[in-house]
Amino acid sequence: MSIKNLSLIFFAIVFISCKSNKSENPFAHLSSEERSKLADYYHEESMKFNPWFQTGKLHRIYKDSALLAVPDHVEYMQRASYSYKKAGEHIKAMEMLNKAVAIDTTNGKTTALEYKAWSMLYFYRDYESTIKDVDKVIEISKIPHKACHGESCLLLKAQAYYQLGEYKKAIETFDSLFTLLKEQSVNPKDDFLANFYLARSYFKLNDLDKSLFYLEEQLSMPYSVKAELNFYAGQIYVLKNNTEKAKQHFLKAKELYLQNDKMNEPYIERFDEIFMNDINLEISKL
Amino acid sequence: MNYFKKKNSLFLEIKLSKENDTKRLYQIIKLNKNTLSLVYYDQREKITETFKKSTLKDIPKKEFSICLDSHPKEYYATDPDYKYTKGNNYILSKIGKSAPLTKGNGYITIHFTINCAKEIGRFGVEQMDRLYKPATYNPDLIKHLINEIALLKDWPDFVKDSYHHDIHAFLMFKIKNGKIVDLCP
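YS: structure for the whole thing
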C-alpha cells in the first residue's frame, strides 16, 4: 500500500473518531441522578426568563441542555415545545410534542396527550385530532371526567363537535359532562363555557327557545362572561322579530364589552368571541 | 449609516432604532461590484450576511424598521393579548375572499413584526401539512397573504416598556382542500 493511501486511511480514522466524539452526549459520563439534577438546574434557569424570553435563544439553550441531560423527560420536552409554539414555529413544536406524547402514552400516562388535545382544539383548530386525543386520554386513564390542560377533556371534545357542525353530538357530549359534574356534586351551571356552547349548539339547530334559555340562565350566574351572552341573546331576539329586546341586548353587550366583561383568553381567540365591529354591525342592521 | 476603517478592516454602522441611537456594528469582509458580505455577533454566534446586487425592477418604496433593537415582545406577553381589534373572522373574510387556491391540506403561518408606529414588516412564512410536517403551497397564495396582512390597519395600541417597543405576531391560515377555511390561534 502506498504512503498516499495509508495517509488517506489515517485521516479518515481521525475524522470519523472526531465526528463520533462530537455527537456523543456531553453528559454521558454522569450518573442518572447527576443528570437528573443537572436537568432540573437547566430547567429552573430557563424559567427565570419566562415569559418575555420564552421564545428567545437563551431560554431554548437551557431547555435543550436539560433535554441533553435527560433526553426522554416528557415534561421538559413538552415544556420545551411551548417556546416554539408560542413563537409560531409549529413544525418544531409539534415534532417535540408528538415525541413527548409517544413516550408518555407508552408508559401509560396521558399528561402530554392532554396538553396536545387542548392545543389541537384551540391553537390548531384541528377538531378531528381533538376528538381522537380526548378519546385516547379517557381510554388510557379510564377517567371520564379527566381534565385536559386545565379544562375538562369532554368540554374540548364537545367544542370540537360544535366546530365540525355536529351539533347533536356536541349536545350529547355536554350532557355527559353535566352528568359527571353532578356525580361530583358540582353544579353544571357553574361551567360557563359548556353552557355557552350548549346554547350555541341549540342556536345552530334552530332551537331558539332552548338556546335563549341557556344564555339567560348564564346571564344570572356570577362568573359568566356577559358581553357574548347578551350579543347572542340579541341575535335570537332579532330572529324572533323583537327589535326592542334585541337592541337592549346589543347595547348591553357594547357596554359590557367596554368594561372588558367579554371572552379574553390568553394566546388564542375563543370560538364565537365577539368584537366591537360585530356589535356595531348588528345595531346598524336594526 | 456610517462606515469607518480600523486596523485595515472596514466597518459599517447601521442605526436600528427610530427612537434612539441604537446601532449595530458590522465588519465588511467582502466588497466588490456585485457582492457585499458582512459579519456581526449575536450573543455567542457569529453571523455572516451576504448581499448580491439586485436585478429586481421594483424596489420597496418604504423601508420597514423596528423601533428598538431587541427581541420584539410576543403577542401573548402583553396584557391583554395583542389581538387584531376586529377579530379573526374579519381578517378571514377580508383576506380569504380573493385568495388564490392551492393544493392539499395544512397550515400557512405568516410571521410579522408590528413596530411602535403600527407599521408591519419582517415577514416570515412556515408551511406545514395536516401531520405538522413541512409542506409547500402555491407561492401566489403566500404572496397574497403577506400583501393583505401588510394592509391591516386596526391593531390595538401598545404600551411600550423599557425592553419592548415592537410586537412579534403570527397568523396561521388553515387550508382544507386547497382553500383557506380557518384562522388560528
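YS: worth flagging: Chain B has two domains: 2-52, 73-184.
IM: good catch. Also Helices of chain B lie at 87-96, 139-150.
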